[in-house]
Design brief:
The protein has 165 residues and is mainly alpha-helical. Helices cover 38% and strands 2% of the residues. The protein is built from five helices and two strands, in the order H-E-H-H-H-E-H.
Length: 165
């Protein structure tokens, strides 16, 4: 295990060095999004990927951060239909640790032109962060990362546990 890999014991959790920088990038992105003030109707469409025709792409460092900082998933891992961190009320249970793609996604039609520009700008920053910390990039769909890392049964939802080894 390298210094930038997540720990598996949440009781003795010592965040990898890149976590602080990633939190800063996320905070700056959140401030940019807030400045643009897109409307969120809390419809849950952002987490129902297949139903609304989108895929959440994430980098390997974002997955490391999500798995080490987010609570256990609210639902079992599926084949890409939904986010495992969306609860039965349609809300995100991993809000503080959510990846960049979640942070820029809003259904507000007035915001649609801004999202790709923010995404590109902040994805470039994440890529530089990964390079500085010699982390693999592997920009791929969230579910591919989760299946590759743990297998389909590992994210068992509320009655199961996440195997973070």
């Amino acid at each position: 295990m390298t210094a930038d890999e997540p720990t598996t014991d949440r009781g003795s959790h010592h965040p990898p060095p890149f976590h602080a920088e990633l939190r800063e990038v996320y905070a700056e992105l959140d401030a940019e999004v807030a400045r643009l003030a897109p409307v969120c109707l809390i419809s849950g469409r952002c987490c129902r990927f297949r139903e609304y025709g989108h895929t959440l792409f994430v980098s390997a460092p974002e997955v490391q951060y999500l798995l080490s900082e987010a609570p256990e998933p609210a639902r079992p891992l599926d084949e890409g239909e939904t986010c495992p961190w969306q609860d039965d009320r349609g809300r995100c249970t991993a809000r503080a640790a959510r990846p960049l793609g979640c942070r820029v996604y809003f259904c507000d039609p007035a915001y649609q032109d801004a999202a790709p520009l923010l995404s590109e700008r902040f994805i470039a920053r994440l890529k530089r962060l990964a390079d500085r910390h010699d982390l693999p990039w592997n920009y791929a769909p969230l579910h591919r990362h989760l299946h590759d890392r743990d297998g389909p049964a590992a994210l068992g939802g509320p009655s199961g546990s996440v195997d973070r080894s």
